[in-house]
Amino acid sequence: MAGTPQNPANTGQSRKPTSGVRYVRSVAVAGQTSTPGDPAANGAASGAGNPALSKRPPAVGARPLPSRAQSPAGGKRKRLGELLLEANVIDQDQLEHALKIHRQTGKQLGRVLVDTNLVEENELIKYLAVNLGVESVNLNDENLKIESDAVLLIQERQARRFNLIAFRLEDDKETLHVAMANPADVIAIDTIKSLTGKSVKVYIGSRIAIADAIDKHYAQQYSLDQMGEDLKSVDAELVEDMDDDLGLDNDAIDAASNAPVVKYVNATLMEAVKQRASDIHFEPFEREVAVRFRIDGALREVTAPPKRLMNAVVSRIKIISGLDIAERRLPQDGRCKLKLGDRVVDMRVSTLPVVHGEKVVMRILDKSATSMDIDSLGFDPMTLKEMKRVLQTPHGVIVLTGPTGSGKTTTLYSFLKHIYSPEINIVTVEDPVEYQLPGVNQVQVRANIGMTFAAALRSILRQDPDVVMIGEMRDQETLEIAVRAALTGHLVFSTIHTNTAVATVTRMADMGLARYMITSALICAISQRLIRMICPKCKEQYTPSEALQNQLAQSFRQPSVEIDLWRGKGCTFCNNSGYKGRLAVHEYMTMTPKLREMIIAQRPENELEEECQRNGQRTLRQSCFMKLLDGLTTVEEAVSLFYED
To answer: How far, CA to CA in Å, does 559 sit from each of 17, 271, 553, 614, 634?
Structure first.
């Protein structure tokens, strides 16, 4: 049955791994920590245990994977090295080399084999299962259902201590199935038997897969049981934005007011803030509910409430956000606040009707977690100096470009904070207003009543502004008003959706703006992206292989690359991801007389980019390479922006 843990014996044989490029894929494993006698650390640390061998044909000359029944007479099991030799996964010279490193460093043999690219970590789990006489389990298998009743029989503290997780109860709930990184740890097994009063069936699984499962399946249970006390101790509460027009669904109001629902919503929001999440997703499906946090740009699934409570959870969120709980057919938008002592966190709420209910996304706007200092935005010294010079310009248009979620609004707010003075009048028009800035007049767009960007901008220009910020230039009318405002002596900040800084010119022309107006008004275009930073707690240096150096040279268009790189091993501080936080990378284009001539002459974007580089302006690619050299990010993150090349 798919997803059912099973013995990998006699199911086939993977072919011998190649070296070189695969070095990148073993980055996460190379940094794993292990304890003496922990066989799972020998190769189970990559994040995917394997319940059955792959269906690839056996390698030439390879033998079938031996089963436990094939052990020598007397019950003595073969050593791991012997199993790998018999299967032609490695040869005698490779084994001797690995054993030599094992004796010199004290690393487990399996770990050495993975680090030196002799064996793939997933493949190694299969041989460890045979070597130890246990079955393997793939916790990442979509068809494997991890039962919450089984998980909660073991306290999270014990699960993390022994690196294990229970995933199933069988035999009238008397047999507990447990995935372990080290199935030979008899102390762990005896402790679990004593704590649960159950018989225990042990499986070997990937260390990282087990850690991820622990994070996922204990996260919200911890929130419900423990964070209720945390909420009291830090004086945390949700500030309800109650309106009279919330609908008259009394049943929904009653369900949303139940203590478990209130406690769950409060705990979930606080846990998201604690983990520095930027968004919370509540997603209903046919038979279950998914709850996910977006942390450092990546969604991470956490334990969700039962399907039967989803409507009550959505109603609770609607009540605290001032939305109509009786309206389930149309999208709605609202806001709420979470008070944590003296700290207030704003949250923007959006609901969307989907097939199996209403999906809710909450954007967390934690001002205390967001730096609005221009010096901490990630600009390199040369670019930072140029940005400060540009911000002293009395009039013109400064445009930020980049995809949604690339930090454009935060950068614009930092610019406004940098130039703020009681002597100037700053007015913004936004959709929505994400952060409220002291001393700045902020206008919320309300398209349903005719308060569009263009309409608001026309009124703003009659308010004697010195500086105007427009959340986004979406249409020709808004663009033309913004440019005319710049030409009449105002400094205008805005955003536009393009992939590069020089593409701003093309985008403006495509929207119908004459090129002579572009060259007259535009003073600077900045393109921005966010990449993840290496966790400072588990950061380690390594020397890349020759193949990886060649890849880097090609990706960053350098003649040669001979550098030491950095990566995160994974630790509790970063939830074993190896990353903590994000930083911005930039490219910019400041207008020069030569660029103005080229734009008027309708020269292509690649020629404009070459001219910018002749002026000493860095591209996004060069900016990423500098962050890599500084040890702030990894190879994978740095090249992720250019995978299409």
So the answer is: 29, 47, 6, 18, 20
Chain center to CA of 568 = 15
pLDDT of residue 237: 55
- Average pLDDT rounded to a whole number, residues 18-44: 36
Q: Residue 630: name the closest of 386, 370, 407, 380 by CA.
A: 380
Torsion angle (degrees, nearest 10) of CA 488, 494, 497, 502: 60
Which helix (H) or strand (E) segment is 585 a member of? strand 579-590
Residue 455 has a CB neighbour count (10 Å cut-off) of: 18
Rounded to whole angstroms, how far apart are CA atoms 641 and 403?
12
DSSP E strand stretches across 296-356: 298-302, 332-340, 343-354
Query: Exposed e or buried b for every residue in 59-70, given b needs 16+ CB within 10 A?
Result: eeebeebbebee
CA dihedral 525, 531, 535, 541 (to 10 degrees): -100
Q: What is the dihedral of CA 332, 333, 334, 338, to 10 degrees?
A: 110
CA distance 629 to 241: 48
Find the mean pLDDT for residues 271-286. Answer: 90
Answer whether residue 9 shows pLDDT above 50.
no
Give yes or no for a contact between 81 and 108, defined as CB atoms under 8 angstroms apart.
no
How many other C-beta atoms lie within 10 A of the C-beta of residue 164? 29
The answer to whether 391 and 421 are in contact (CB under 8 A) is: no
Inter-axis angle of helices 259-274 and 310-321, to 10 degrees?
A: 70
For residue 75 the two structure tokens come to 């019950």
> Average model confidence (pLDDT) for the chain?
78
Residues whose CB is less than 8 angstroms from the CB of residue 109 and which lie 6 or more positions away in sequence, other chains included:
42, 80, 81, 98, 99, 102
Report strand pairing: 565-568 vs 539-542: antiparallel
The CA distance from 450 to 391, in Å, is: 32
pLDDT in tens, 223-256: 444 444 444 444 445 555 444 444 445 555 555 5
3-state secondary structure of 202: strand
Residue 472 φ/ψ region, left for φ over 0, alpha for ψ in the -120 to 50 degree band, beta for the rest = beta
